[in-house]
Amino acid sequence: MTKVLFVVSECAPFIKTGGLADVAGALPLALSAFDCDVRVLLPGYPAVIAQLSKTKVVKTYEDLFGGPAKLRRWKYAGLNLFIIDAPHLYDRDGGIYGDVTGQDWADNPERFAALSYVGASIASDGAGDWTPDILHGHDWQAGLTPEYLQSAGTDVPFVFTVHNIAFHGNTSADRMNALHLDATRFDADHFEFWGQISALKSALMGADKITTVSRTYAEELLTPEFGIGMDGVLRHRKADLSGIVNGIDEAAWNPATDPNIKPYKTAAGKAANKQALQKTFGLATSDGPLCVLVSRLTEQKGIDLLLEALPELLRHRGQLALLGSGEPKLEVALLEAAASHENIAVKIGYDEALSHQMIAGGDAILVPSRFEPCGLTQLYGLRYGTLPLVALTGGLADTVINASPAALASKVATGIQFFPVNGQALTNAFTRLCDFYSQPAVWKAMQRNAMKQAVGWDASAAEYSAIYSSLMKAPS
Ligand code: ADP
Fold it and tell me: Which of 297, 356, 377 to mutate to test the pocket of ligand 1 (most atoms within 8 A of CB)?
């Protein structure tokens, strides 16, 4: 049995802002089939603390970056968790990364240094009767782990997964003491990045193995365009970098049993869900495709490209139902588009149940991202027979089979990809989408292909477990 501690800042179903949480919630269960005992270390945000019951304090810290803290062991929803109960760091109103206005918390460096520090302390002294063989950190919030492993004098291997390279967790060098970092390691080989402390750089330099969430993104990360400043570091670590595509939680995302929808086993069952969704969004019936989009609303996600290309969808009597929240200027632009056309409907907010209804009721799911490490909503779409229309980048390139003439002829097409990632190519993609939609036999064949595609965790969990095994010391 390999004991692995995930060090991660969010985990579904307890606390989620994006795909990172889905991975942290589903991969541990998938890994249990590969003889791995995975536990998840998570900050005790108020939403998490409110869900706790029957916890056991397994460790205490007199001064965890500015105040006392307790480490609580918790078992829930099939997961084994350690929760950092540190009110001075996590007990506050607002989001998990920032306040209600979207401004990052000023003490985020300390809040997530604490996460990394506790991870390293569990590796060095255990938690209760459990000590991990491997630490597995996710994104910059776990990035300083190698530094704290070093100061604790432990050589437990550290695996690091990049879910999104755009977030570096940089902070000014004058926080060195506050973060309990060793100033002699403030150099290019450790956590220094252009004169700043970089949690991401620390992880990329200190990890024994680095993974990211699709093969294409692993290649893209080595280029200046996608590496966002870290491409040089990653080229240096290329021998230890690999791409492992994300899966989805097949229990939570199963159209035959999903409690949020009218369940169905074949795509024919989507019609009732489409009707319900149109009603929810105040859309009339139409003979064009109903496209859905569920996303954070940021520059990355290509929302501006969507707005540019929408007239083509509308010209074919297509419809858009969109759910998301994020940058105010994108929210405003979307609400204005919705106000200007009866076939566009937008809901600003975060709504898990509605996201299921949208994936079930949509004909197509849109993911026009400029970059997309893996992307999950296109995977949900495949499973629900909701054809993905996606940019040709990152995990979207790896998980969707474009409806080229050859793919259609050999009956493997599962969606539509567009490239280059701009408004004109997306416009052309809408033309193709509407053309396929007007040919029911072609559309249905693609739905069947999509619903057959494997989108679970089995193959990827096997790859992670192989990485863990490669790092385990042979028994002496
Ligand atoms: P990212 O991690 O970059 O946000 P992913 O596609 O990997 O993108 O994962 C996003 C996850 O968050 C998906 O599970 C998606 O359904 C969910 N999600 C995003 N925005 C919303 C929202 N407004 N309401 C409900 N779920 C959302």
Answer: 377
Q: How far apart are CA 403 and CA 162, in angstroms?
A: 30
Cα 296 to middle of ligand 1, angstroms = 6
What phi and psi values does residue 199 have, to the nearest 5 degrees? -65, -40
pLDDT digits (tens, 9 = 90+) for 332-381: 999 999 999 999 999 999 999 999 999 999 999 999 999 999 999 999 99
Amino acid identity, position 438? S
Identify the helix (H) or strand (E) that includes residue 320.
Answer: strand 319-326
Compute the distance between CA of residue 162 and CA of residue 211 in angstroms, rounded to an integer: 6
Question: How far does residue 278's CA lie from ligand 1's centre (Å)?
Answer: 21
> Tokens 């990364």 label which residue?
97
Give long-range contacts, CB 8 A cutoff, 24+ apart: 466-473: 467/159, 467/209, 467/211, 467/242, 468/2, 468/4, 468/36, 468/133, 468/134, 468/136, 468/159, 469/2, 470/209, 471/134, 471/157, 471/159, 471/208, 471/209, 472/2, 472/133, 472/134, 472/157
Average pLDDT on 110-137 reads: 98
CA of 18 to the centre of ligand 1 (A): 4
* CA separation, residue 155 to residues 6, 121, 135, 147, 172 (Å): 16, 12, 10, 11, 28
| DSSP SS3 for 469 | helix
Q: Are 369 and 401 in contact (CB under 8 A)?
A: no
Element containing residue 210 per DSSP (H, E):
strand 209-212
Judge whether 387 and 446 are in contact, CB under 8 Å: yes
Ligand 1 probe mutation, 16, 164, 248, 294, most atoms within 8 A of CB: 294
Kindly report, residue by residue over 16-60, the tens digit of the pLDDT: 999 999 999 999 999 999 999 999 999 999 999 999 999 999 999
Ligand 1 atom showing the smallest separation from residue 349 Cα = 23
Question: Which two three-digit tokens encode residue 76?
Answer: 């829930």
The terminus-to-terminus CA distance of the chain in angstroms comes to 17
What separation in Å is there between the alpha carbon of 297 and the centre of ligand 1?
10
Helix 270-281 × helix 352-361 angle, to 10°: 130
- Its pTM stands at 0.95
